[in-house]
């Protein structure tokens, strides 16, 4: 009777040990998966935050250029055309901003192409 009882305890210990180890392995796999997902999220978050901050500074720079161009037209173009220079001033402003945007976009695309080739 004592040996049978001891054998049953041994079997129960073995089963408990096996179940605990299986649970640990499953938990370990889930933990690693969560860790990988957290790292991926951190990279994406940093990337998106960098884009957002860069876009914000780009907007501030664009607004500064906007004010500079308006002031330039007000000081140098409007006196040349007189009081009725509203349409002409806006036309010159629109053309200048368009040319500047095309130039900057072209230069940035050249830089992006070079980086992609490397």
Automatic annotation (TrEMBL):
What top-level branch of life does the organism fall under? Bacteria
**Membrane-spanning ranges:** 49-66, 86-106
> What keywords is this UniProt entry annotated with?
Membrane, Transmembrane, Transmembrane helix
Q: Which Pfam families has this protein been placed in? A: DUF5654 (PF18898)
User: What is the recorded name of this protein?
Assistant: Uncharacterized protein
* Protein's organism: Candidatus Woesebacteria bacterium GW2011_GWA1_39_12
Where is the organism placed in the taxonomic lineage, from the top? Bacteria, Candidatus Woeseibacteriota
């Amino acid at each position: 009777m004592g040996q049978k009882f001891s054998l049953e305890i041994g079997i129960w210990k073995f089963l408990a040990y096996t179940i605990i180890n299986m649970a640990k392995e499953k938990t370990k796999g889930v933990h690693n998966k969560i860790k990988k997902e957290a790292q991926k999220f951190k990279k994406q978050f940093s990337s998106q935050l960098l884009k957002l901050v860069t876009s914000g500074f780009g907007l501030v720079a664009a607004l500064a250029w906007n004010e500079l161009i308006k002031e330039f037209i007000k000081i140098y173009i409007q006196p040349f055309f007189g009081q009725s220079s509203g349409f002409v001033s806006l036309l010159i402003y629109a053309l200048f901003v368009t040319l500047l945007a095309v130039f900057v976009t072209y230069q940035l695309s050249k830089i992006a192409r070079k980086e992609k080739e490397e």
